[in-house]
Amino acid sequence: MVAPSALSYPSPQTAIEGAAFMPVNPTVAGMVSGYSVSPTLPAGLVLNATTGQISGTPTTAAPTGTYTITAQNSGGATTFGLTLTVNPATTAALEPAAATTIGIGQRINLFFVQRVGGAPYPGYVDATLVTWSSSNPSQARVDPNGNVTGVAEGTTTITAQYQAFSLQLAVQVSGTWIARTLSVPGQGARRYAIYIPSGVGAAGPRPALLAMHGGTGTAMGQAASSQLTKFAQERQIYAVFLEGSGTLQTFNAGACCGTAQSQDVDDVAFARAVIADVRAIYSIDAARVYATGFSNGAMMAHRLACGLADQLAGVAAVGGASGEFDGAGTRYYTCSPSRPITVLHIHAANDRNYPYAGGVGSDGVLNGLGTANFYGVEATITNWIARNNVTNQAFEERIGASTTCMRHATPADGSRPSAPVVICRVDPRDVYDAVNRIVFGGGHSWPGGVRSPTSNSDVPIQDFNANAYLWGQLNP
Fold first, then answer.
1. What is the b/e burial string over 96-116, where b = at least 16 CB atoms within 10 angstroms of the residue's CB?
2. Is pLDDT at 368 greater than 60 in this prediction?
3. Cα separation, 445 vs 356, whole angstroms
4. Is 15 left (phi over 0), alpha (psi -120 to 50) or beta?
5. Is the pLDDT of residue 363 over 70?
6. Is the pLDDT assigned to residue 370 strictly greater than 80?
7. Average pLDDT value for the chain
8. Which of 61, 87, 113 is the last residue before a domain boundary?
9. Are residues 145 and 209 in the same domain?
10. What is the rounded distance in angstroms from the CA atom of residue 185 to the CA atom of residue 269?
11. Residue 52, Ramachandran bin (φ over 0: left; ψ between -120 and 50: alpha; else beta)
12. Which of 157, 343, 455, 458 is most buried, judged by most C-beta within 10 A?
C-alpha cells in the first residue's frame, strides 16, 4: 500500500475558551487508516482518529502551540504541524466595578467594558448599544447612555444587558449634591457644587475637601471619576467641587491652562471666596480645610498651597505638578506660602499627557487644550522640600504592586515651622493602546477611581486608592 502524503489543515487556528470550535478537516492524498496528534490537543478539543476532524469546545485557554498530526496506513505516514491558540473567554464588567455612592441630584457615568477572547485590550462598548435599567427609578434613574442620577435616598440596582451578558451594580443614594453660584469681585458669577453627606449635620464641625477638575472638565465629572462623594459619605466630610471658567472650563494654575490662564483669572481669589461661602452656611472645621485636584486642577492645588496657606491645612495633587514655572523655566507667579502646609503629589510614571519628567506630552496636549511644556514632578517636590523646611531624608512606603510613596517630614531647621512633603510615584506595567491612545492602568487618571467619559481617557489602577491615602496624609 502506498503511504498517504500532502497532509494539511487550515492553519493557524484560533479558538475561544468556552465557545464551540468550528470543526476543521484535513486535506490528504491517499488512503488513511487512522489519525493521531502529539502533544494532546488543549482540553475540550478532540481529533477524530478515523476522519481527522478536529472539533469540540475548549475548556481552558492555551498559548499558541504546534500540534503534529499524523495520518497513516500500513504503507507509511505523513505529518502536518497545526498552529493552534485557545484565547481566554470573552469577559464583561461594569465600571465602577464596586458599589458606589452618589448624592441626590448627582450624576455619574457607567461604562460597559468587554474583552473579546484574547484581545490585548478591553473595549468600551457604546453605551447606546447597552440596555440599562434601574430596580428603583424613584431612587436612582438611568438613561440610555448609562448616566445614573440620584433621586432619593436608598439603594438601587442598575442592570446593564449586552449580548449574552447581564451585569449589575449597586448604587447607594445618600446625601445631597447642591450647585451654588457666588459673586467674586472682578470675576462676576462663579459656580461650585458641594456634596453634603447624609448625617453630617449631627456630627458637629467637620472637615471640608475642595476638589478641582482637569482642563475641559466639570465638577460633576471630577466627582464621578475620583469617587470622592462615596469617600466623603464614608468619612463624613464635606466635598466641595469647584467649576473652572471659560467655555472649555479651566483653572489658572500659572503655566496652564486655557482661557483662565490666558485671561489671568484669579482662581486663588475664587477658591478663597468658596471657602468663605461654605463656612458661612455649613458647619465646617476651619482648621481642617484641604484641597485636591486632577491634572489642571492638580496644578491649581499646588498654586493654592502657595497662595491660600492661611486657609488650607494641606493639598493633594494628582497628575499635575507646579505651574509656577513651565518646562522652559519661565516663571508665571511667585510661590510664597504664609506658612508650611502638607503637600502630597501623586503621579504615574506612564502618564503621557503630563509626563513625570515634565516637558511636552507625547500626545502633545493636556485634556485637549493645546501644546503645553510642563514643569517636572521631581523639580516640584524639590521646591516644596525647601519651602516646607524638611530634609531629603524620607520614609518609603510601598503600596500595592505599583506605587511607592516617599514622605519627607524631618525638619531641616528645628527652629522654624515645617510640614510634610509626600511624593507617590505610580509605576504599573505599561499597557498602552497606541491606536486609541489609552493607557490601561495608570497614565493620566485618578488611582482607585473611574475612567472619565472622553474617548481616549486612561484607565486608573485599582491597587492604590488615592482617596484613602491622601486623606491619611492630609488628616492624620
1. beeebbbbbbbbbbbbbbbbe
2. no
3. 13
4. beta
5. no
6. no
7. 95
8. 87
9. no
10. 9
11. left
12. 343
User: What's the average model confidence in pLDDT over 54-75?
Assistant: 96
**Same-domain status, 56 and 193:** no
* pLDDT tens profile 92-125: 999 999 999 999 999 999 999 998 887 888 989 9
Closest alpha carbon to 56 in 86, 26, 90, 91? 86
- Tell me: do 70 and 164 sit in the same domain: no
Task: Write down the pTM of the prediction.
Answer: 0.87
3-state class (DSSP) for residue 189: strand
The residue type found at 5 is: S
H or E stretch at 6? strand 5-8
Q: Name the grid cell of 340.
A: 508650611
Pair (438, 451) in one structural domain: yes
Contact between 269 and 185 under an 8 Å Cβ cutoff? The reply is yes
- Residue 179 lies inside a defined structural domain of this protein: no
Here the CATH number for the domain that contains residue 31 is 2.60.40.10
Number of helices (H) and strands (E) in the chain: give both, helices first: 7, 30
Question: Do 309 and 217 belong together in one domain?
Answer: yes
**Does residue 365 register a pLDDT over 50?**
no
Query: Helix or strand or coil: residue 286?
Result: strand
- Bridge partners (DSSP) listed for residue 241: 193, 211
pLDDT attached to residue 364:
45
Sign of CA dihedral 220, 226, 228, 231: positive
Across 335-357, average pLDDT: 97
The domain containing residue 202 runs over which residues?
Answer: 185-474
Asked if residue 221 has pLDDT above 90, the reply is yes
Which residues face 294 on adjacent strands?
318
d(CA 239, CA 290): 10
At which of 87, 118, 133 does a domain end? 87
Clarify whether residues 320 and 444 are in a common domain.
yes
Nearest to 199 by CA among 243, 168, 141, 153: 153
Residues 27 and 80 in one domain: yes
5-48 pLDDT per residue, tens: 999 999 999 999 988 999 999 999 999 999 999 999 999 999 99
